[in-house]
Amino acid sequence: MKALRLVATRQPLELHDIPVPEIGDGDVLVRVRAAGICHSDVHYRAGASPAHPLPLTLGHEVAGEVEAVGKNVSLVRVGDRVCLHYLLCCGDCYYCSTGNEQFCAQGSMIGHYSNGGYAEYIAVPERNAVILPPEIPFEQGAVMMCSSATSFHALRKARLKAGERVAVFGAGGLGMSAIQLAFAFGALDVYAVDINPAKLALAAQYGATPVNARDGDPVTAIRQHTNGRGVDVALELIGLQQTMQQAVQSLGIMGRAVVAGIADKPLVIDTYRELLGKEAEVIGTNDHLLQELPLLIELVRRGKLKLSQVVARTVPLEASPVNAVLDALEQFGGDVRTVIVP
């Protein structure tokens, strides 16, 4: 089968011909119909968050059709449409048993520590294959598995309540889902912060108030929009020291800043003015949970979360176009979300 593989860090992905993966008794073989290109893949390619062992097939946003099942598989059948939870875990340890599988000591992640979905086929344990309703296209099912799911988990970590105000720093794939999900959770106002006018225009279509950071300090703009109050929740989805600081500075009294972006520089906080004096919180968010996916999928199925414009374009399973997308993302450019369609 064809697979796009990372052979060495800081090098372009290469298209290889490798064997179709074998499956165990509890596994399923999935024919990949869509694989999202995520900004995390840029970090893996650059070595900022090293992928191993190399060579490795990237891709952790995956949807497709079940091609074959192991003899002990009972929940999915050949032909089922599925999207894949990217965290591989033992299912038995303390963290798995409490629904926090991202901390499983034996855990792994497809496309980061095991072969992912930039390929024609992928094998995963049965528990990782989540049924995808026929109303949801494969392309949307793929991006749900990271960008939407990560935003969903971040908002849950933020303890967002109805009537609160939210700032979303980064109007990319995660940000577009975060905006819509914040409103679904009951947010009164959502402010979308970015420097890309096209992305801000799309955010406005979803009901957000656009804040163009090229036009001035976004923290000042947010305080003007909120009559000096600040926001209750700020999500940082970019991974820059500056935007992490701005997320914290945009908070009002007892506000919560949730950091999801991966940065290579530390977050610097004025502990009294920005944290203690307001009883504000800075919260880290890590991946998402299998238990969250059924509700997320249902929100998409019911049209509460619309992803048709989030999936900006598709590219084939070829090295040149995929590397070009990764190059653009590395410069914080590119479309909202690009999806590989093998």
From TrEMBL:
<feature type="transmembrane region" description="Helical">
    <location>
        <begin position="166"/>
        <end position="188"/>
    </location>
</feature>
<keyword id="KW-1133">Transmembrane helix</keyword>
<dbReference type="InterPro" id="IPR050129">
    <property type="entry name" value="Zn_alcohol_dh"/>
</dbReference>
<dbReference type="GO" id="GO:0016491">
    <property type="term" value="F:oxidoreductase activity"/>
</dbReference>
<feature type="domain" description="Enoyl reductase (ER)">
    <location>
        <begin position="8"/>
        <end position="341"/>
    </location>
</feature>
<dbReference type="InterPro" id="IPR002328">
    <property type="entry name" value="ADH_Zn_CS"/>
</dbReference>
<dbReference type="Pfam" id="PF08240">
    <property type="entry name" value="ADH_N"/>
</dbReference>
<keyword id="KW-0812">Transmembrane</keyword>
<dbReference type="InterPro" id="IPR036291">
    <property type="entry name" value="NAD(P)-bd_dom_sf"/>
</dbReference>
<dbReference type="InterPro" id="IPR013149">
    <property type="entry name" value="ADH-like_C"/>
</dbReference>
<keyword id="KW-0479">Metal-binding</keyword>
<keyword id="KW-0472">Membrane</keyword>
<comment type="similarity">
    <text>Belongs to the zinc-containing alcohol dehydrogenase family.</text>
</comment>
<dbReference type="InterPro" id="IPR013154">
    <property type="entry name" value="ADH-like_N"/>
</dbReference>
<protein>
    <submittedName>
        <fullName>Alcohol dehydrogenase</fullName>
    </submittedName>
</protein>
<keyword id="KW-0560">Oxidoreductase</keyword>
<keyword id="KW-0862">Zinc</keyword>
<dbReference type="InterPro" id="IPR020843">
    <property type="entry name" value="ER"/>
</dbReference>
<dbReference type="GO" id="GO:0008270">
    <property type="term" value="F:zinc ion binding"/>
</dbReference>
<dbReference type="InterPro" id="IPR011032">
    <property type="entry name" value="GroES-like_sf"/>
</dbReference>
<dbReference type="Pfam" id="PF00107">
    <property type="entry name" value="ADH_zinc_N"/>
</dbReference>
